[in-house]
């Protein structure tokens, strides 16, 4: 019990600052959307499309760069300072390289959307936003590498404060860039894109200064690191990280794709589906912090060769994430009217009734997805990435989508059948990740006993 308490405490101390960072990122996106809304409906729709393209490119890059995290954590646990500095530099090269490739894609947003059948007007607006936001992608991925480094050495708190500060800064910079001030004109949608890039630049500059000058990081001596790229190590990270990026894309992309099938059930179903997705994103984002913390702690235990620590981490992760999920589900149920009226500003009673009926399925999906997410982070710490990606693909796009279409059509459940399919798609991922974690613990325990 003492070990579980200590492990849970460590998980919270690492996970909460990381969760604050994820929440702050979401708040920045919401701020951008709220500001652009004041420009008009077309501008808002075009910016939403731009953000969708940005998210797809960003998520793949995020997964690849994230693969540096367990290597950083392992080096720190071994006390290998030169190795840690080396992984930090290689992670930076990967972030810049992938970010610049992604920026080229974002600079062609308009053409991509036009080929996909979007109107020229919306595609042009989306191009405006991503023309300003494109250079923010490598900056964001550099931030991910910095976040991985701080988490790997058990010091993520300062970065949480940086991200919290970035939210009001983004509001001010975004307002000035979009609308201007006094005699100085704003730049509209492209200004919104540039403001996101400026804020990301400020965040990564603050993070780098902190890691090079902050008291908690002085022993790392990151300033002494060789800046030479090492292709072999870069390819190793890309090999481990590509399945993570694909897994994230498959999981995140599954939800909006369902919107195409929801549309045939009418406007109420479409509205309820969109709000259900927004609700999941609002309450599930904290799980990403615990998932990142689990990556670090699992990597520490792996390097230590300590199966007891891995077992305690699994128990602590289930306790903390399960409690968090249950509490948030209960709060959401009790505060449903507040969520609908204040957060979503929904005044359509018919759509509200549909969303209320959908709520149990939304929360079921949230509970299962939370468990799958945090245990997935655990597996990343154990460098187990390929098989979990395959399971996500089969579970969501095979079981989830297939069952959802069957239940919504031939089975006669309509719109709700698609959300049953979502939950059934998330369930195998959560179950598999738990079994896979248990299997990895058993392997390490066997290896530990053989070595003894």
Largest sheet: 2 strands, antiparallel
Number of strands: 2
Cα distance spanning the termini: 26 Å
Strand neighbour order, sheet with most strands? 1-2
What's the tally of helices?
A: 16
Radius of gyration equals: 22 Å
Structural class: mainly alpha
Element-by-element helix/strand order: HHHHHHHHEEHHHHHHHH
Poorly predicted segments: none
Query: Fraction of residues in helices?
Result: over 70%
Mean pLDDT score:
89
β-strand percent reads under 5%
The coarse silhouette is globular
How do the strands and helices of this protein lay out in sequence?
Layout: H1 2-37, H2 41-66, H3 68-78, H4 81-106, H5 109-115, H6 120-133, H7 136-152, H8 157-179, E1 180-181, E2 184-185, H9 188-213, H10 231-262, H11 267-304, H12 307-334, H13 336-343, H14 349-381, H15 386-408, H16 415-451
Helix pairs in contact: 1-8, 1-9, 1-11, 1-12, 2-4, 2-6, 2-7, 2-10, 3-4, 3-7, 3-11, 4-7, 4-10, 5-6, 6-9, 7-9, 8-9, 10-11, 10-15, 11-12, 11-14, 12-14, 12-16, 14-16, 15-16
């Amino acid at each position: 019990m003492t070990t579980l308490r200590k492990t849970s405490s460590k998980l919270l101390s690492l996970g909460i600052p990381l969760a604050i960072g994820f929440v702050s990122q979401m708040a920045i996106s919401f701020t951008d959307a709220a500001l652009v809304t004041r420009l008009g409906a077309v501008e808002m729709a075009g910016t939403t499309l731009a953000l969708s393209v940005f998210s797809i490119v960003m998520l793949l890059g995020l997964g690849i760069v994230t693969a540096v995290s367990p290597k950083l954590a392992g080096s720190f646990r071994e006390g290998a300072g030169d190795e840690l500095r080396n992984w930090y530099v290689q992670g930076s090269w990967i972030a810049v390289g992938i970010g610049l490739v992604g920026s080229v894609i974002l600079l062609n947003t308009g053409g991509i959307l036009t080929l996909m059948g979007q109107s020229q007007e919306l595609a042009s607006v989306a191009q405006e936003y991503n023309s300003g936001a494109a250079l923010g992608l490598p900056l964001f991925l550099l931030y991910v590498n910095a976040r991985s480094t701080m988490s790997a050495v058990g010091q993520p708190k300062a970065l949480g404060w940086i991200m919290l500060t970035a939210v009001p800064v983004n509001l001010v910079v975004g307002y000035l860039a979009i609308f201007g001030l006094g005699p100085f004109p704003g730049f509209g949608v492209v200004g919104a894109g540039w403001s996101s890039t400026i804020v990301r630049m400020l965040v990564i500059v603050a993070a780098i200064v902190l890691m090079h000058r902050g008291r908690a990081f002085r022993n790392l001596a990151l300033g002494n690191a060789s800046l030479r790229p090492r292709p072999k190590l870069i390819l190793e990270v890309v090999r481990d990280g590509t399945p993570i990026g694909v897994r994230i894309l498959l999981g995140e992309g599954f939800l909006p794709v369902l919107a195409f099938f929801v549309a045939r059930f009418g406007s109420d179903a479409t509205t309820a589906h969109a709000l259900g997705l927004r609700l999941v994103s609002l309450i599930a984002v904290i799980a990403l912090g615990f998932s990142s913390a689990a990556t670090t702690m699992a990597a520490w235990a792996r390097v230590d060769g300590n199966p007891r620590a891995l077992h305690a981490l699994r128990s602590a992760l289930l306790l903390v994430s399960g409690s968090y999920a249950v509490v948030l589900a209960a709060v959401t149920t009790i505060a449903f009217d507040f969520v609908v009226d204040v957060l979503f500003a929904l005044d359509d009673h018919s759509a509200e009734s549909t969303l209320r009926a959908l709520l149990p399925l939304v929360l079921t999906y949230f509970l299962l997805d939370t468990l799958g997410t945090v245990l997935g982070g655990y597996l990343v710490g154990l460098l187990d990435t390929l098989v979990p990606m395959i399971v996500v693909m089969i579970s969501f796009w095979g079981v989830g989508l297939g069952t959802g279409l069957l239940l919504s059509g031939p089975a006669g459940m309509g719109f709700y059948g698609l959300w049953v399919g979502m939950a059934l798609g998330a369930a195998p991922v959560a179950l598999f990740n738990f079994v896979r974690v248990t299997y990895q613990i058993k392997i390490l325990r066997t290896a530990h006993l053989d070595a003894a």
